């Protein structure tokens, strides 16, 4: 024992710089990680019995959003392309929340706390506009209203050469046209809510968007015009602009619409098409950096969770949210405005008066309205 003690006394941590350097490095890594992870949703508001639709809710951020909102009392409908994966996600959410819920001896209705949570799955494939119509029709016949619509599902690094069955570029349809159509179809139900909220998920990348003013909806020969990255940025800028347009259209109603960027998020299926993620050795090299500089799905979900639950945002519409915790960020609004200005303040919105957009076959032609944002 004495020997050990004297060893400690003799050990001089300052005889070498390595412990100091190591400590500084660890401190730096923790600091960067903390900053990059962003803030948590600052409130714990309950949304008892509110009906919430989350697209792409079976994995990644959609899953985290659905879980958080279910925990706050919402009735969640997961809109998933893959029903099997969706059912599995719903079961996981219910089980996890059930485990956290203490047994209520007075509640004789169900012995299993997991059954107190309402998480259901419906089929929705954004690659198909008719699937969007079916989904919306089914939802509207099943539920009397919808309180929150989270348009979370999206695509990045798709193949720009291959159009969807409806004849559109994939990013444009999955990230923009289909969510916008879904929103328009569900509007009557959102208006029946005491306070309907529509949330779009955009991305920082919208700032890099290139718009072709002769073809703002990118329905021309996109494969030649755009790399997948540009097509993605384009669809996300279209979302920011559509948010502003829709907010104007909805003035005087109880429905608000906002969009947010989750920041850089790793560990979602979002990047599954990325060329970076296909090679093993590249993965080994990039994962530590992704861990350090990117948010995980839970952290990325916080902005949308706040938009769905914060009573302070009741009157806020048409805004672009960046950092989740803070009040909406004037600078980001300015960015979005500047971007909108760059697009000459124009946005083409598919014919609002023909819900279903029946005649769309890749050529929007006269079915397109021109709107000032
Ligand atoms: C759907 O999800 C299940 C479970 O995750 C998976 O096994 C199956 O391959 C998926 N189907 C399609 C068509 O992706
Ligand atoms: C159960 O009911 C009794 C009597 O109605 C009440 O005193 C008690 O607080 C209740 N317990 C819980 C956990 O709600």
Short characterization:
With 373 residues, the chain is α/β, with parallel strands linked by helices. The protein has 12 helices and 9 strands.
User: Regarding CATH, which class?
Assistant: Alpha Beta
CATH architecture: 3-Layer(aba) Sandwich
Radius of gyration: 23 Å
Chemical compounds bound to the protein = 2-acetamido-2-deoxy-beta-D-glucopyranose
Fourth-tier CATH superfamily name: NAD(P)-binding Rossmann-like Domain
Task: Write a concise keyword list for the protein shown above.
transmembrane; SDR_fam; disordered C terminus; 373 residues; oxidoreductase; NAD(P)-bd_dom_sf; 9 strands; oxidoreductase activity; seven-stranded parallel sheet; two-stranded antiparallel ribbon; Rossmann fold; binds 2-acetamido-2-deoxy-beta-D-glucopyranose; alpha/beta
Give an account of the 3D structure.
This protein has 373 residues and is α/β, with parallel strands linked by helices. The chain has a single domain (43-344), classed as Rossmann fold (3-Layer(aba) Sandwich), CATH 3.40.50.720. It has twelve helices and nine strands. It has helices spanning 2-10, 18-37, 60-71, 83-100, 129-142, 170-191, 222-225, 228-249, 280-293, 297-300, 302-309, 330-342; strands at residues 51-55, 75-80, 119-123, 148-151, 197-201, 256-260, 320-321, 346-350, 368-372. Strands 3-2-1-4-5-6-7 form a seven-stranded parallel β-sheet, with helices on both faces. Strands 8-9 form a two-stranded antiparallel sheet. Helix 6 (170-191) links the parallel strand 4 (148-151) and strand 5. One 2-acetamido-2-deoxy-beta-D-glucopyranose is lined by residues 104, 106. Residues 104, 106 line the site of one 2-acetamido-2-deoxy-beta-D-glucopyranose (NAG). It comes from Drosophila busckii.
């Amino acid at each position: 024992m004495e020997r050990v003690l004297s060893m400690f006394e003799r050990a001089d941590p300052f005889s070498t710089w390595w412990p100091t350097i190591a400590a500084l490095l660890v401190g730096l890594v923790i600091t960067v990680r903390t900053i990059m992870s962003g803030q948590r949703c600052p409130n714990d508001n309950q949304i008892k019995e509110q009906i919430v639709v989350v697209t792409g809710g079976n994995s990644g951020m959609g899953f985290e959003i659905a879980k958080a909102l279910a925990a706050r009392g919402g009735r969640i409908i997961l809109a998933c392309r893959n029903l099997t994966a969706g059912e599995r996600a719903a079961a996981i959410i219910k089980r996890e929340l059930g485990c956290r819920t203490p047994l209520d001896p007075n509640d004789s209705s169900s012995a299993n706390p997991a059954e107190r949570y309402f998480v259901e799955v419906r089929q929705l494939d954004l690659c198909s506009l008719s699937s969007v119509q079916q989904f919306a029709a089914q939802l509207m016949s099943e539920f009397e209203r919808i309180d929150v619509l989270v348009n979370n599902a999206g695509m990045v690094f798709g193949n720009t050469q291959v159009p969807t069955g409806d004849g559109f570029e994939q990013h444009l349809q999955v990230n923009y046209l289909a969510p916008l159509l879904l929103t328009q179809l569900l509007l009557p139900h959102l208006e029946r809510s005491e306070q309907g909220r529509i949330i779009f998920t955009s991305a920082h990348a919208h700032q890099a968007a290139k718009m072709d003013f002769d073809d703002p909806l990118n329905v021309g020969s996109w494969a030649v015009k755009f790399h997948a990255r540009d097509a993605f940025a384009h669809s996300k800028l279209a979302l920011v602009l559509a948010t502003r347009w829709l907010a104007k259209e909805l003035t005087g109603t109880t429905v608000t619409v906002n969009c947010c960027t989750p920041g850089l998020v790793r560990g979602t299926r979002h990047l599954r098409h990325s060329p970076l993620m296909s090679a093993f050795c590249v993965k080994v090299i990039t994962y530590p950096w992704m861990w350090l500089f990117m948010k995980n799905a839970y952290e990325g979900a916080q902005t949308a969770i706040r938009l769905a639950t914060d009573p302070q945002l009741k009157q806020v519409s048409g805004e672009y949210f960046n950092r989740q915790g803070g009040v909406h960020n004037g600078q980001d609004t300015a960015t979005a405005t500047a971007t909108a200005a760059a697009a000459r303040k124009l946005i083409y919105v598919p014919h609002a008066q023909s819900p279903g957009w029946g005649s769309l076959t890749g050529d929007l032609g006269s079915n397109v309205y021109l709107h000032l944002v």
